[in-house]
Amino acid sequence: MTKKFTDRKITNGVFDGVKFNQPSAYQDYRGYYYTINDAEDNDIEYVKDKLSTSSKDVLRGIHGDYKSTKLVTCVHGEAYCVIVDNREESKTYMDWAWVMLSLHNRSTLVLPPGVGLSYLITSDGANILYKWAYPGGYPDVDDQFTLKWNDKNLNIFWPIKEPILQPRDL
User: Fold this and answer.
1) Exactly one of 34, 63, 76, 93 is catalytic; which is it?
2) Taking Cα atoms as reference points, which of 98, 53, 60 lies closest to residue 80?
3) Is 63 assigned a catalytic role?
4) Could you count the other beta carbons within 10 Å of the beta carbon of residue 71?
5) What is the CA 17 to chain-centroid distance, rounded?
6) In the annotation, is 130 catalytic?
7) Would you say residue 7 has pLDDT above 70?
8) What is the rounded end-to-end Cα distance, in angstroms, of the chain?
9) Full set of structural domains in the chain with CATH
């Protein structure tokens, strides 16, 4: 499948079940005040929050599972985020899309089960907040899938040639 890079930007409806939000914020000389999640806006009950801290040029690989829904946002810094639809029954199976998440744009992604997430830190450092919802036990590494960040079949555009990777993502 060949698509132009600009056609892959994440919007609501790009993949079934993926939600992209840009919440409004109160901002003054002291900084920002905004809502990341509001139970009145959805029926998802998040049960675990995680925070990932990474340095510039770290690329966290394309990971996901078939059990959890995740709300993801950047609470410090900036990250080039890529999602991949890994649901075999989906009409967008193995398609990818991207968006910049940052403290300044306050954007959030809600990813359904089967959609993988990867991100590259483009600022000096960044903190990515995850809110997890899932039935039963936590879907740890053994329950997750990993797709290669540079898989030729996916043909993902990355604004870096030699990212910092962990062994799982090589």
Assistant:
1) 63
2) 98
3) yes
4) 21
5) 13
6) yes
7) no
8) 24
9) 5-169 (2.60.120.10)
Which of these is catalytic: 34, 46, 66, 130? 130
Please state the separation of Cα 86 from the chain's center in Å. 14
Confidence (pTM): 0.90
Closest-CA residue to 129 (of 77, 75, 82, 54): 75
Q: Please state, in angstroms and rounded to a whole number, the distance separating the CA atoms of residues 156 and 150.
A: 7
What's CA 75's distance to the chain center, in Å?
A: 13
Mean pLDDT across the stretch 13-28?
Answer: 87
Assess contact for 59 and 146: CB atoms under 8 A: no
CB 101 within 8 A of CB 22: no
Cα–Cα distance between 4 and 6 in angstroms, integer? 5
User: Over the stretch 39-71, which tens digit does the pLDDT of each residue have?
Assistant: 777 789 999 999 999 999 999 999 999 999 999
Q: Which two tokens stand for residue 119?
A: 């991100």
Token pair recorded at residue 96: 């990818």
* DSSP secondary structure of 70-125: EEEEEEESEEEEEEEE--TTSTTTT-EEEEEEETTT--EEEE-TTEEEEEEE-SSE
In Å, how far from its chain's centre is CA 133?
Answer: 15
Mean pLDDT of 151-163: 95
